[in-house]
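I hope you will forgive my troubling you with a question about protein structure. I should value your view on which stretches of the chain appear to form regular backbone elements. Here, with my thanks, is the record as I have it:
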Amino acid sequence: MESSTILPLSHFSFLSQKPHGTSIGSFPLNQWSPTSQKTRLNCQKMYVPGFGEASPEAKAAKNLHNLFTYVAVRVVNAQLESYNTEAHKELMEFMERHSLNDGDKFCAALMRESSRHKTLAMRILEVRSAYCKRDFEWDNLERLAKKMADESNTRLMRDYVLETSHVETEK
């Protein structure tokens, strides 16, 4: 039976605001001495280089925004297929000529195509907003993203260990 002791993070002086003892640069010399007072933990988020114009979250939000446009186009197109085949055909033809990679550019171009296309674009915008606000499962996204990261990391590490620790057997 294993046992372990879990100490609160405030017991380690390197996490406190004022380190004990003298320091060299920004590293306290006696990092592991416990402190009896409660200290506030100052957490900072990880710095991610290479995202100068926007944070990773902002880039993910932009990609989700484009995904919501794609979903809305698919929903509207499926609806049109069953009750307005002419509009369905026009939307399909428009989709062949215009990329859905940038949802806003797609909708802007659709609005300017004709008055009939403007109506389709307005419907897509309405569905996009409704899907984002009411139907997209944000909690499920977080759960799936974390699960995928963990499973992928485990698989990649396992494959690497198996690949590098393989010992050739002599015959």
Q: What stands out?
A: Residues 8-41 form one domain. Confidence is low (pLDDT under 50) at residues 1-34. The radius of gyration is 27 Å.
